[in-house]
Amino acid sequence: MLLLLLGIIVLHVAVLVLLFVSTIVSQWIVGNGHSTDLWQNCSTSSSGNVHHCFSSSANEWLQSVQATMILSIIFSILSLFLFFCQLFTLTKGGRFYITGIFQILAESNSSQMCSCD
């Protein structure tokens, strides 16, 4: 049982790390003299110096991607917090329904992000 709880904690932390990295990482798309990520578009010169950076949030679909990424991080943090609260307050053999619901919400938000074209 202890191994199962440790596995669940590792899963929660891995999801949080992946969500933070995918939200914060820059340069999702790197092309000829420009780089684009979730938050800004930057044009660079041939020497690699950044000349202009503009906000990427002009597109409606990109704003929805930004919102779902932030929501999945929030739901995942809440899920981890509720897991620890329920771990110490539930009776032996109790079910982690609330934690599971928040984890499903976090995963469904991050998977909806991938369906934007």
Verbal overview:
Helices cover 60% and strands 15% of the residues. The chain is built from three helices and four strands. The protein is α+β, with helices and mostly antiparallel strands and 117 residues long. Helix 2 packs antiparallel against helix 3 (97-113). It has a four-stranded antiparallel beta sheet, with no helix packed on it. The mean pLDDT is 76.
Give the distance, in angstroms, between the N- and C-terminal Cα atoms. 43 Å
N-to-C SSE string, H for helix and E for strand: HEEEEHH
Low-confidence stretches: none
**Beta fraction:** 5-15%
Proportion of residues in helical segments: 55-70%
Per the principal axes of the C-alpha atoms, what is the gross shape? elongated
Q: Which structural class do the helices and strands define?
A: alpha+beta
Major pleated sheet: 4 strands, antiparallel
Count of helical stretches: 3
Strand order of the largest sheet: 1-2-3-4
> Any idea what the radius of gyration is?
19 Å
Number of E-state strands:
4
Q: Which whole number gives the mean pLDDT?
A: 76
Per-chain topology:
Elements: H1 2-24, E1 29-31, E2 34-36, E3 40-44, E4 50-55, H2 60-89, H3 97-113
Helix pairs in contact: 1-2, 2-3
Please sum up the structure shown.
The chain has 117 residues and is α+β, with helices and mostly antiparallel strands.
Keywords:
single chain; 117 residues; four-stranded antiparallel β-sheet; 60% helix; elongated
